[in-house]
Amino acid sequence: MLWKSQRKRAVESPRPLPREAAAEAAARASEEEARRRGHLAGEYATCLSDQLKLLRQDLRARREQWASFCSALAAARRRLTARAGSRPAQSSQAERDPEGETPQLDAELGRLARALLQEGHRLKAWGVLGTGTGAELLRPASADPERDADDISVNPITKLMVPGPNCVMLPASGHTGPVPRGYFIHPDTGRVLPEAGNLGYDLQGATLVPTADFSSSGVRTSEAAILPYVPYPTCPATDCPPAPRLPVLQPRRTSQLGALMTDPTTGLEVPVLAVTLHPSTGQWLTLGGTYCNPLTKTLAPLELGSPMEDPVTGGIAPILGVGVDEHTGRVLALGGLRDASGNLLLPGDSFVEPLSGKTVRLQGASRQEGRTVPHAGGPQALLDANVLVAQRRVIAALRRHRRGPASRAQGPLEAAVKDMRRALALSLHHLLQQARRLEGQLEAARGVQAGGGRVGMMCYPGTELWVPVLYGMEIPDPEGSGLMVPVLGVESDQNGTGATPLAGSMEDADGKGLVPISIGAQAIDPLTGEPGPVIGAQVDPSTGVVVPIVQALEALPREARDPGLLDTLERELRARERYWHHQELEEARLADHLGALGQELLSTPGRAAGRQLRAAEDACAAVESRRLQETERRARALSAHGGPERGLLAQADREEWEQEARVTLGMRKVLQSLGQATEKLRQAAGRLQGQAEEMWLQQGGNQSPQMWNRPRKVVRHLSDELQAALRDRQSFLDGALGQLQFQRELSRLQLWHTQVVASGTPVCLENYPANRFYGTVATSLGDQAAASPLLIPFLKSLTAALAGAQGHGPGLEGPGTGTDADKADIAWAFSALRKVDIWSQAYKEGSRLQGQVHHKSVPESSRQDPPRPQVMRKAEPMAVPPTELCTREFVVYQHGLSILRLLTHQLRAPEITLQIASHLPALEASHNAFEGSFFYQSSESTLFVGRECLASVGSFVLLLVHCLAHIAADDFHQDSSPAFLSSFYKALKVYFREAFAITLQLSALSWDSKLDRSVSASLLQEQPVSETGRELLSKLLERKCESHLELESSEEYIKKNKELLLITNMEHFLKSILAAEQQTPRKPRDQFGGDDKL
Fold it and tell me: Which of 976, 978, 527 is nearest to 763 (CA)?
């Protein structure tokens, strides 16, 4: 940095250097550091470019293999269809050669097997090929069966098969030896492998699965992520595991491609790079964190592919994995692997697995016995092998189809093909995410390489000398605190004539004085006054002072969600999926028709084929016409996009159009060859028939049968030759259709990924903003639209107002009645808010201040999901009659009914009945934030909510809004689905508008004489309420859904109730709230940032 040597000289010098000299020294140090960063960034960019090149080559090889396999599959299915059709009534061709289809079917099955084996060898998928990596397990011979049973056991913690003390292993070297600790027996191959680098944590099954040599009989179709597994280390000195410093895995922060966590040191949101299992507690812990980025010399999140210092050469290398230090328990970045020639090993390169001596593909790095070693296991290796296993099942289904009745075998074959396509989608999804991550990292590296990390120029503090500014360089605090502070960017004024370095000091979050504004430091958010980790700096336009940007609620800010863009992308994806589905059916039907037509026409020489060929040409023209219509539709849709999404979609469209052109060419070639072959066969048959008749006349009708059958044999031989040539054309067409199918799947995944990024959902790993830690994210408030804060502060004040916490209106929960259950429920509700990403897209004020509310960093022991309400599971929900509810529960229940009446019409959701239940049935695990607190019977349109949810008004309201949005979206499993988020935001908007009017109504009714003191006392003390009181309470919260929703109706309401509103004195009400908040001392907040009790 600018830097420790300069600081040392300043300390050793008896007098400080003149500011001009310090500025010149800073300029020289900046230029030197820029050259160093540029050189390192060049090396890093070369590594990333090589890795991307390997990945793209691999993608092309996958497409070719898929096309080859699909081509053979289509031909085999046509053979089976033709054979099944010929069994009831033998055709003329079948009469000549009943077994004619069998050799051709065997040839197609052979092509399928060769395509599978070739891809298995290319991917080094030794498990699918029937061997496997690792050492061979040897067990000593024994006459005692009980002793044999002890040789292999199941680890009670990891549930893995492990060898016993009597077992030995035989590696490729041929020297047997004992099995070291930390090895397991592969369930598919029976060989011994180290746990590090060969296991993964399946989020769906919450168990460990082998990620190397996958060859299971079943095909994986689950979208749940598989996280790399790292064994928990044992300290060599104490033979005990080090003290845990890792946070617990939180399922609510997982997505299809990984998971996110909170760095236990800084509180920053970081990716989960691996998981480990604590041997004592049995908890699944996450591995991730922060480190010093060598390109910026600032704190940055650990991420696969990020730059790290090569531990051998001191250069730069990409991070390939993480491990845990045996002594301290710290997370370590691993990388810098090299081959025998000294070349850097990258994912996709080959190396020799030492235990088996087989060549495998590098997937990452792991830590074994204190050393960094390469490994071949990983999520991508498992998903790649899963595709091969699915293809193997398709071949097996074809063989059964061949032997058994077609009606029984067709269903299993279709299911196997569907699983194969699903397996391909999962593999490509993971592969595309790697490509996106590498492209983002390469863009950042090339930016540093081009400018040496410079972010602008600045006037050195206290001088008039302009010096280059590097992200992370240290300068004297411009505010004069005397501290050396890092520069986190440069902000130019509107005229472009001046630049302000985003560097300064701030008050320490613990009140220990001024500290530099630096990444990861704990700060007080200048807008909300709450503490959190610093993720950047900005200039407060009202004061001109540099203030920190603080992370909000354990989530880094994503790009602003554009509802219009999100809706457009969602409509575009649906339109393309419809087109792909119908077009693929028509293309496959036309290809099969051409194949059957060729078989039919070439098997019966002399048959008129003009009408059938014209019909086939018309069908081909119709397919091309639909393609042109889709091209025009996409062009119109793309014209509405102006951001980077347009370039991504346009590139995907170009590649798809190229493959569609190949399909069109293939169809035209088949039609052309079919027409030429039919005409050639017709002419040959006619010519030979004439010659035969002439010879018969010459010989006076005494021609032998052999001579009479000779023309027929010649025609048949010519027909076989023409059919072979036509099969080559048909094979080209089938291959083109396979490549088009592959490309369409890629396009679908790319569009889906773009949609996820545009949604701005913070729980997804796909849109993790890693590039902001290179200083590439703009932080100017003056040049950006003000981003609205989170809705949680408003929700807290809203629920407090509804509950009468400010002393106005009837108090539903008295100021001293908050319980620990209330606190946990509130925390759980706000945790759910973080899960479903309730970011408002609201206002831009005149001062254009940007508000970002954040969440306080907490100890690792509390960084886990709050306890959910404990509900006994029964087979059916047990409803609680409203008459059995206490007063407070009844009021909250009535409030829920009014909310459902309000929102049902607005969301166009079905009319539902709300029931309170004492017990709820067990449900399967899902990604629903309120899982376990409700049960929806779709057949009866009844929503059951647990009775314990009535303890908190805020949690109950959020639960109802959440459930109704899921009902409107017809999906209860994913809180991140765009349809749910759209309904959820709309429901909140409607509810907030109505809540304001309800607050006025409650305040007015609090002065109404109809509400006597006895009812008020029953509300506070939870006493039983009379029938009269119940009717009065129902009227208190009764709402008309059509009122207060539009501006005109609100004005009418105010005019109608003008006198009551004047009596309530709303101005005094609001002023009293503000005064109470200003006078109330700040209390330490819980782990979810909430200090209000309901």
Answer: 976
Quote the DSSP letter at residue 911: P
Q: Which of 386, 305, 303 shows the shortest CA–CA distance to 765?
A: 303
CB neighbours of residue 396 within 10 Å: 14
- Give the CA distances from residue 1050 to residues 694, 994, 1056, in Å, rounded to whole numbers and listed in that order: 103, 10, 10
Contact assessment for residue 508 and residue 522, using Cβ atoms and an 8 Å cutoff? yes
The residue-averaged pLDDT of 1040-1049 equals 39
β-bridge partners, 201: 208, 227
Asked if residue 776 has pLDDT above 70, the reply is no
Q: What percent of the chain has pLDDT over 90?
A: 23
How many angstroms separate the CA atoms of 501 and 544, rounded? 12
Rounded Cα distance, 854 and 446, in Å: 32
Query: Is residue 502 within 8 Å of 518, Cβ to Cβ?
Result: no
Alpha-carbon torsion 478, 481, 482, 483, what sign?
A: negative
CB proximity list for 195: less than 8 A, separation 6 or greater: 158, 160, 182, 183, 184, 229, 231
Q: What is the DSSP letter of 217?
A: S
Between 761 and 439, name the one with better pLDDT.
439
DSSP category for residue 180: P
Q: Rounded to an integer, what distance in angstroms lies between the CA atom of residue 1003 and that of residue 1068?
A: 12
* CA distances for 924 relative to 204, 205, 835, 958, 1022, angstroms: 11, 12, 19, 22, 36
Give 1041-1057 as a 3 state SS string. Answer: CCCCCCHHHHHHHHHHC
Q: Measured between alpha carbons, how far is 741 from 628 in angstroms, rounded to an integer?
A: 18
The pLDDT score that the predictor gives to residue 996 is 66
Alpha-carbon span 359 to 125, nearest angstrom: 10
Length of the chain: 1094
Q: Residue 1087 has which token pair?
A: 């782990």
pLDDT (tens digit, 9 = 90+) per residue, 552-598?
777 888 776 667 777 888 888 889 999 999 999 999 899 888 888 87
pLDDT-derived band at 1044 (thresholds 50, 70, 90) equals very low
Distance CA 201, CA 654 (A): 38
pLDDT of 560 reads 65
Residue 355 pLDDT exceeds 90: yes
- Residues 614 and 982: their CA atoms lie apart, in Å, by 49
The pLDDT tens digits of the residues spanning 368-424 come to 888 899 999 999 999 999 999 999 999 999 888 877 665 666 788 899 999 999 999
- Is the torsion defined by CA of 640, 981, 270, 286 positive or negative? negative
Residue 936 pairs with which residues in a beta bridge?
943
Low-confidence winner among 524-528, 916-920, 964-968 (lowest mean pLDDT): 524-528
Q: Is the dihedral of CA 793, 796, 797, 799 positive or negative?
A: positive
pLDDT at res. 1094: 29
In degrees, rounded to 5, the angle at the alpha carbon of residue 871 between the alpha carbons of residues 865 and 877 is 130
Q: Quick one: how far is CA 683 from the chain centroid? A: 62
> Which residues are registered as beta bridge partners of 269?
262
The per-residue b/e assignment along 223-257, b for 16 or more CB within 10 angstroms, e otherwise, is: ebbbbbbbbbbeeeeeeebbebbbbbbbebbbbbb
Decide: helix, strand or coil at residue 343: coil
Tokens, residue 387: 């595709």
pLDDT (mean) for 615-635: 88
Query: Could you tell me whether strands 531-539 and 522-524 are parallel, antiparallel, or unpaired per DSSP bridges?
Result: antiparallel
- State the Cα–Cα distance between residues 932 and 928, nearest whole angstrom: 9
In this prediction, residue 836 carries a pLDDT of 35
- Given a cut of 60, is residue 1014 above it in pLDDT? no
Q: Give the pLDDT score at 340.
A: 86
- Distances in Å between the alpha carbon of 758 and those of 559, 755, 766, 927? 7, 5, 10, 20
Whole-structure pTM value: 0.69
| Residue labelled with tokens 């809706």 | 567
First to last CA, the chain: 49
DSSP 914: E
User: How many beta carbons lie within 10 A of that of residue 407, not counting itself?
Assistant: 8
Q: How many angstroms separate the CA atoms of 339 and 682, rounded?
A: 65
